């Protein structure tokens, strides 16, 4: 059931983008990637291995689109109380002209879902 809810939320977010409600439908919309949309993604695997990757939204539109959805999610949603591990993602920088300071963990079902969605949208890196 949880996977179905997440799929519905992503579908609604995509429909909002297509209809222009959430931006991203033209060069002047805040959802459009510009050269100013730059982020630093820090991945901490929980065992001391930390990688930091600078990302520009023009080079990673899927990641920035997913971040827009994650940033729009309400804080008061009901989440399963499961622990997915010590991993975490820190996202810092600028998106749509505004500052981003986001931490995503794997401390409950909602955070695990957010973590998985963001990591699956990360651009491939060499090495």
Can you describe what's shown?
The chain contains 3 helices and 4 strands; from the N terminus they run αββαββα. By secondary structure, the protein is an alpha+beta fold. The protein has a single domain, classed as Subtilisin Inhibitor (2-Layer Sandwich). α2 packs antiparallel against α3. The longest helix is centred in the first third of the chain and has 18 residues. About 17% of the residues have low confidence.
Sum this structure up briefly.
By secondary structure, the chain is an alpha+beta fold.
| Cα separation of the termini | 37 Å
Q: Which segments are poorly predicted (pLDDT under 50) over 5 or more consecutive residues?
A: 11-31
- Output the helix-strand order: HEEHEEH
Give helix % range: 25-40%
Q: Major beta sheet, specifics? A: 4 strands, antiparallel
Under the CATH scheme, which architecture would be assigned? Answer: 2-Layer Sandwich
- Spatial strand sequence of the major β-sheet: 2-1-3-4
CATH topology: Subtilisin Inhibitor
With helices defined by DSSP (H or I, 4 residues minimum), what is the helix count? 3
Task: Give the amount of beta strand, in percent.
Answer: 25-35%
